[in-house]
């Protein structure tokens, strides 16, 4: 719809301003450059109160108007010689190309803030949006070369033949415009977004019809059958392009999964991710596995053991000294008289007694008392427990979420309200919410194709976490 409105506006512009445009092109160039600078400045440093949707509308319409100008330039080449539109637009074809380039640069500089950065172009997974960004880079290079060589002062430095060869790169530029549109809209249309379908249909009718008409004109001119090149015949060829466009869009529509046409966006009740439950369970298991330090009671002093006197162990081996018969004094007797000595009675051997326990010296010092360890301090939590509400700026307006926290763990995130397209917001919600619960951080990657809805959810979660912080 935006393309059709832009084409109508360009027709009105050329109808009213074709002559002054050709006579004073510098004034129109300056106006286009000024508009691009203003739009880029608003986009890069948006004042408060401007939503991303409103902010995106400026470069969107600027780029659509510039693309419509390029379409006017390319369609002129497919018209039969002498056609009224060709007579009106051919004299300002070069000036209109420069004008369109200045307008389109404003859109590219605006969106370049998010899509033309090394962090986006060279990192992360390949997606249709990233491929469209690379196509845009090639388009900008071609556009600048074609625009500079369209300036009359530069054009005079080329021979007519060489300049025409250089300008044929414009066909590649036109084809890349259509490829860029396909990459930006086919994924969304396959998810059931009807707006992307209408955009695909409009661009397909224009570019496929132009391609058929341009190829037909070239073939007729080469074969010398230029008489067959009439407005009616070219209109019929354009009709074939329109039919092909309908077939293309219908084929894409039939390939849409049924579930994708009805995006489910839960609102109100809490949505708890399995990842968050797993994360909380792991934290609980870790806490339970840590042994709590048991207080060490004061050691009771053991009662002193009763000391049993122990007899000298020598009595177990030899009899006591008083039991040994003393040898009698020998008297001097004659050798002839025998001396009779009474035989001593054998002493009974004492029974073996068990060895007593070793004596514990009474001078042993009591063991020092072990002081009980001090209880560990309770961990300081960053966030309060409970459910907290936060808001952030989505694509069309505010996004409000409720975040539930338990012991510094984000256990659930529910969407309370939002102002956005359901299909885009559904993609953002399913991707961003699960990522935040898994990483326990609101700083996650935005969902491709739903960047502003994703940023709105992340901003709302940050706001809720800021309110939950312990002061």
Q: Runs with pLDDT <50, length 5+?
A: 260-280, 295-344
Mean pLDDT: 78
How large, in whole angstroms, is the Cα Rg?
48 Å
- What structural class do helix, strand and pairing data support? mainly alpha
**Neighbour order of strands in the largest sheet:** 1-2-3
Globular, elongated, flat, extended or rod-shaped: what is the shape? elongated
Distance between the termini: 52 Å
Query: Major β-sheet, in short?
Result: 3 strands, antiparallel
Tally of helical runs: 15
Q: What is the H-and-E element order?
A: HHHHHHHHHHHHHEEEHH
Topology, number of strands: 3
Helix content estimate = 55-70%
Question: Approximately what portion of the residues adopt beta-strand conformation?
Answer: 5-15%
Count of spatially separate domains: 2
Give an account of the 3D structure.
The protein is mainly α. The protein has 2 domains: 2-261, no CATH class; 274-282 and 381-468, Sufe protein. Chain: A (Alpha-Beta Complex), CATH 3.90.1010.20. The protein is built from 15 helices and 3 strands. The protein has helices at residues 2-23, 25-44, 52-78, 84-89, 93-115, 118-121, 128-150, 152-155, 160-167, 169-190, 194-222, 231-254, 274-289, 422-439, 451-468; strands at 386-393, 398-406, 409-417. The chain has a 3-stranded antiparallel beta sheet with strand order 1-2-3. Strand 1 (386-393) and strand 2 (398-406) form a beta hairpin. The longest helix is centred in the middle third of the chain and has 29 residues, at 194-222. The protein is elongated and about 115 Å long. The two termini are 52 Å apart.
């Amino acid at each position: 719809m935006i393309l059709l409105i832009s084409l109508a506006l360009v027709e009105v512009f050329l109808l009213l301003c074709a002559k002054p445009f050709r006579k004073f092109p510098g004034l129109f160039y300056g106006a286009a450059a000024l508009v691009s600078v203003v739009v880029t400045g608003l986009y890069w440093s948006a004042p408060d109160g401007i939503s991303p949707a409103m902010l995106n509308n400026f470069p969107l319409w600027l780029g659509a108007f510039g693309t419509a100008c390029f379409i006017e330039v390319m369609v002129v080449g497919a018209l039969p010689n002498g056609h009224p539109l060709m007579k009106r637009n051919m004299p300002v074809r070069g000036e209109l190309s420069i004008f369109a380039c200045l307008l389109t640069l404003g859109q590219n500089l605006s969106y370049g803030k998010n899509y033309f950065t090394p962090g986006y172009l060279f990192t992360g997974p390949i997606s249709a949006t990233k491929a469209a960004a690379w196509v845009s880079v090639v388009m900008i290079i071609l556009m600048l070369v074609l625009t500079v060589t369209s300036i009359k002062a530069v054009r005079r430095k080329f021979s007519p033949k060489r300049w025409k060869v250089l300008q044929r790169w414009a066909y590649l530029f036109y084809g890349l415009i259509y490829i860029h549109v396909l990459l930006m809209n086919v994924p969304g249309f396959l998810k059931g977004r009807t707006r992307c379908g209408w955009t695909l249909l409009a661009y397909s009718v224009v570019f496929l019809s132009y391609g058929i008409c341009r190829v037909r004109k070239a073939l007729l001119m080469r074969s010398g059958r230029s008489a067959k090149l009439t407005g009616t015949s070219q209109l019929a060829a354009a009709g074939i392009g329109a039919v092909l466009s309908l077939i293309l869009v219908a084929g894409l529509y039939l390939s849409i999964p049924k579930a994708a046409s009805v995006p489910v966006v839960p609102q109100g009740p809490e949505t708890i991710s399995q990842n968050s439950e797993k994360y909380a369970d792991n934290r609980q298991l870790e806490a339970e596995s840590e042994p709590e330090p048991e207080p060490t009671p004061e050691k009771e002093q053991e009662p002193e053991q009763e000391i049993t006197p122990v007899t000298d162990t020598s009595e177990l081996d030899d009899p006591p000294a008083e039991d040994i018969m003393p040898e009698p004094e020998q008297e001097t007797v004659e050798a002839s008289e025998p001396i009779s000595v009474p035989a001593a009675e054998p002493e009974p051997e004492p029974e073996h007694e068990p060895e007593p326990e070793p004596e514990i010296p009474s001078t042993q010092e009591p063991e020092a008392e072990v002081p009980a360890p001090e209880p560990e301090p309770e961990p300081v939590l960053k966030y309060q427990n409970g459910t907290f509400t936060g808001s952030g700026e989505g694509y069309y307006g505010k996004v409000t979420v409720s975040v539930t926290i338990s012991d510094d763990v984000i256990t659930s995130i529910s969407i309370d309200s939002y102002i956005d397209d359901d299909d885009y917001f559904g993609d953002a919600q399913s991707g961003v919410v699960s990522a935040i619960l898994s990483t326990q951080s609101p700083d996650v990657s935005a969902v491709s194709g739903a960047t502003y809805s994703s940023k709105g959810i992340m901003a709302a979660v940050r706001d809720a976490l800021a309110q939950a912080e312990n002061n």
